[in-house]
Design a protein that fits this description.
mainly beta; seven-stranded mixed sheet; six-stranded antiparallel sheet; 9% helix
């Protein structure tokens, strides 16, 4: 008959599912599994730990899940099979001791490092509270690692290397009175604090951000120094070169993995430089489309006492993800080969390749953007104007944002002449005949409005355009545009534009309100001379939004053609 043992899978899963109540089932299952391999017909035997796909270069067995098939044979099971299953269950019922979990049983063997890797991103199911190291073992990506004790079998065949990478562990790590070696990188927890005297000093990438803020379209440069010893924070050699040669060094910098607290930030590679390379040390570089950087040193050896500095220039892209005040960090990961020895036995070393290094993580940077606030006023605070008067106006553009504003455009709408129906004659009022550009001056001041930063010159730092009364939509408009040579309007700085104007000569309407509206209508996040996408900010001139502090403002004068004022 055709026999499929899918029921065995169901039985195993049922037993494992209640391990929290009766951990003895795991032991029973293992005993049964091993016995099956000896009593089943040869054609029915299978590897009871099937291969599970994992990261590149990693393969092996996972857990103790089993699956059998009788194929096309008509042979039945020996009587011993049923008896053995029953025995296993009875054994479990008679025991309350949970079996220890072995690294060799649950880990996936990395074909490159030859370590059994227990990866929290891959492993299915919880780990036992009692975990024993019976091979070179690496715990990876456990936040936290929920294991009460990590120790070794009674017949300890070590010494072994135990690696922790991106692990938080507060359990008990048996690190004293043993020749096993411990390598902990990118990891935290009280277990490592307690074992601090037995952890091998680790190499790190010291990564620095240039400042606390970043602006869209404006390149900035990370500095990476390696190797830089980091073990622990008060280690005497902290920041110094390694005492060991590093082989097969490979560095990765994923510019797409930069957000903080779940955010996403878009960075693009611009360029890099490397200094401190010893003679004969070379590397291959790929930028992964500007997003994933790889520095591969191949067979070159970074000798003890050597430090190399990378300066990697990147730029924030103009994307919907990059907005103020999103924070981001950047992480450079790496691996290498080197000799490791237990701190108590420095002459008994073993070469391991690869080993994970401590990643270089930059301090957080915050995306900042410019924000312009316009105030329109008259220095004399005059509210009335006669035909013989000269009115002085000032446009104050404050950068109230954290990012610099470049190539600021200011639009000033002077009062367009109007006809007021009247008896016996119509009257007029306006301020369009005089070109205000002939008297205009512009300067940049500090936040106090009085400390001069620099004066601006027409033609060198800005352009002017004035449209007289042409009957069109742009009648009586003055346009002021800063260029790149003017520099930026830095945060808290003020651009002050001052000019003079007069009433139109045919103005005859007394007491008429003439409102002048000015607005910052366009500016950029970065210097336009850089070949990188920058952010353009555009605003519309309306009525000046009286009483609201924003990109526009208005000022009103009244015609005073008779009487005293």
């Amino acid at each position: 008959m055709h026999i499929g043992l899918t029921w065995w899978n169901l039985l195993y899963k049922k037993m494992v599912s209640i391990r929290g109540v009766s951990g003895f089932f795991e032991s029973a299952v293992r005993l049964t599994t091993r016995a099956l391999c000896s009593i089943l017909p040869i054609h029915m035997r299978r590897d009871v730990r099937p291969v599970r796909s994992g990261p590149s270069g990693v393969s092996g067995s996972v857990g103790t899940s089993t699956s059998f098939s009788a194929g096309s044979t008509r042979r039945g099971f020996p009587i011993g099979f049923s008896l053995l299953v029953s025995f296993a269950l009875l054994l479990g019922a008679a025991s309350s001791a949970q079996a220890d979990m072995l690294c060799s049983e649950v880990g996936i063997k990395d074909t490159v490092s030859k370590r059994w890797v227990v990866d929290g991103d891959v492993f299915v199911g919880p780990l036992d509270s009692q975990f024993k190291i019976d091979v070179d073992c690496e715990f990876r990506n456990w936040q936290p690692l929920i294991v009460s004790n990590i120790n070794y079998p009674v017949s300890d065949p070590g010494p072994f290397l135990v690696v922790f990478d991106n692990v938080h562990y507060d359990g008990n790590l048996a690190c004293a009175n043993t020749e096993h070696k411990f390598w902990a990188v990118n990891s935290t927890g009280t277990a490592f604090e307690k074992c601090i005297d037995f952890l091998i000093p680790t190499e790190t990438i010291a990564k620095q951000a240039p400042e606390s803020y970043a602006r869209i379209g404006e390149p900035f440069t990370y500095t990476l120094t390696l190797p830089s010893m980091y073990f622990p924070a008060d280690y005497a050699q902290n920041g110094e070169p390694s005492n060991d040669d590093l082989h097969s060094v490979t560095i990765w910098d994923d510019l797409s993995a930069t957000g903080v607290n779940g955010s996403t930030v878009d960075l693009t590679y611009v360029s890099h430089t490397v200094s401190g390379l010893p003679p004969g040390v070379t590397y291959d570089f790929t930028d992964g489309g500007g997003k994933y950087l790889t520095f591969d040193f191949g067979d070159s050896v970074i000798q003890a006492g050597t430090q190399i500095t990378f300066e990697i220039t990147v730029v924030l892209d103009d994307t919907v993800n990059n907005v103020e005040p999103v924070q981001f960090v950047n992480t450079a990961e790496w691996q290498f080969g080197r000799k490791l020895a237990h701190p108590d036995y420095p002459d008994q070393w073993t070469y391991y390749d690869p080993l994970p290094g401590v990643s270089g993580i930059s301090d957080p940077m915050t995306i900042v953007e410019p924000d312009l606030i316009v105030t329109k006023s008259s220095p004399s605070d005059s509210t009335a104007i006669n035909l013989d008067d000269v009115a002085t106006f000032e446009i104050d553009v404050l950068n109230d944002g954290e990012g610099a504003a470049w190539e600021v455009t200011v639009l000033d709408q002077l009062p367009v002449p109007v006809t007021i129906p009247s008896v016996p004659l119509d009257t007029y009022a306006g301020m369009c005949e005089t070109n205000p550009g002939t008297t205009l001056t512009a300067s940049i001041f500090e936040a106090d409005g009085t400390t001069l930063v620099r004066d601006l010159t027409e033609g060198t730092h800005y352009t002017l355009n004035y449209t007289a009364d042409n009957g069109g939509a742009d009648a009586c408009q003055l346009t002021f545009t800063m260029n790149t040579d003017a520099g930026s309007l830095a945060p808290t700085q003020r651009l002050k534009i001052t000019y003079q104007s007069r009433l139109d000569s045919n103005s005859t309407q007394d007491g008429y309100a003439l409102t002048n509206v000015a607005a910052a209508t366009r500016w950029y996040s970065a210097d336009g001379s850089e070949p990188h996408p920058r952010r353009e900010y555009t605003k519309t001139l309306t009525d000046g939004t009286p009483g609201t502090s924003n990109h526009e403002d208005s000022y009103t004068l009244y015609t005073a053609l008779s009487g005293y004022y």
